[in-house]
Write a structure and sequence with these properties.
heterodimer, A: 144 residues, alpha+beta, Heat Shock Protein 90, 5-stranded antiparallel beta sheet, 4 helices, B: 114 residues, alpha/beta, Transcription Regulator spoIIAA, 5-stranded mixed beta sheet, 3 helices, globular
């Protein structure tokens, strides 16, 4: 199906870009006039996906690129792809487990994927060790 | 300044504000921790009433402080979270390790039936 609108972003995996990324996607979705609650859901889910790229995908290897493509499809369907070329995920099932975190500092809750799953309508993750990770989030916005 | 610390006796109140994510959590964590280590309070209150956005990094921030407070037998209370923050807190199940007082929802005036 042909999207009604599309945008692409590429930016460095610096933590200061987390706010930029979620705000940019929210601004792209704004013409659909989402509910405040839906907008918060989108911002939070994007923030989680981008933070994963920064903390886990590139964490030890330094700075890499994060690519976001966002599309609006008919029936108010927002589609967001977040892609990195980082270390990849060996065990996606384990990574998506609530409270699992690959981070050893004890400062990460391990809730990234749980939040993505409960704040959007569909989450797809594809990854291969050494080949990066792609997360696709979809959210159907309520009729206004 | 995204953090306002009030210390009185063995009580530390941390008033957080703005957006809490992985980027902004680090300086918050460092400043709160230095107060905890110095004061060793019985109670740490984290006030979220001026926080406009929070992702799971906020949960990590709470969890880490709970752990540090436990080391000297203190506890953590969370207050002021409303709207979207409440949703994130609820999903995390943080109420199992910290007392959560959510912001009071505005009372709806009673409609009288005719």
């Amino acid at each position: 199906m042909k999207p009604l609108n599309e945008m692409k972003l590429t930016f460095d995996s610096r933590s200061s870009n987390e706010a930029f990324a979620r705000t940019a996607v929210a601004a792209f979705a704004a013409p659909l006039d989402p509910l405040m609650d839906e907008l918060c859901d989108i911002k939070t889910a994007v923030s989680e996906a981008v933070t994963n790229c920064i903390v886990h995908a590139y964490g030890e290897s330094g700075i890499g690129k994060i690519h976001i493509t966002a599309r609006i499809y008919p029936s108010r369907r927002l589609w967001i792809k977040i892609r990195d070329s980082g270390c990849g995920i060996e065990d996606i099932k384990q990574a998506m487990q609530p409270a699992y975190s690959g981070d050893q500092s004890g400062e990460r809750a391990g809730l990234g994927f749980s939040i993505m799953c409960s704040f959007t309508d569909r989450v797809r993750v594809s990854s291969r060790p050494g080949q990066g990770t792609t997360v696709i989030l979809e959210k159907i916005l309520s009729e206004r | 300044m995204p953090l306002k610390l009030d210390i009185s006796g063995s009580f530390v109140r941390a008033g957080l504000s703005g957006e809490i994510d992985h980027h902004s959590a680090k300086p918050l964590r460092e400043e709160i921790d230095s107060a905890i280590i110095r004061v060793q309070p019985e109670l740490l209150e984290l006030d979220f009433s001026a926080v406009s956005f929070m992702d799971s990094s906020g949960i990590g921030l709470i969890m880490g402080r709970c752990r540090l407070m436990e080391e000297h037998g203190g506890s953590v209370r969370i207050c002021g979270a409303s709207g979207h923050l409440k949703k994130v807190l609820k999903l995390s199940g943080i109420d199992r390790i910290a007392a959560v007082e959510t912001a009071k929802t505005k009372e709806v005036p009673h409609e009288t039936a005719e």
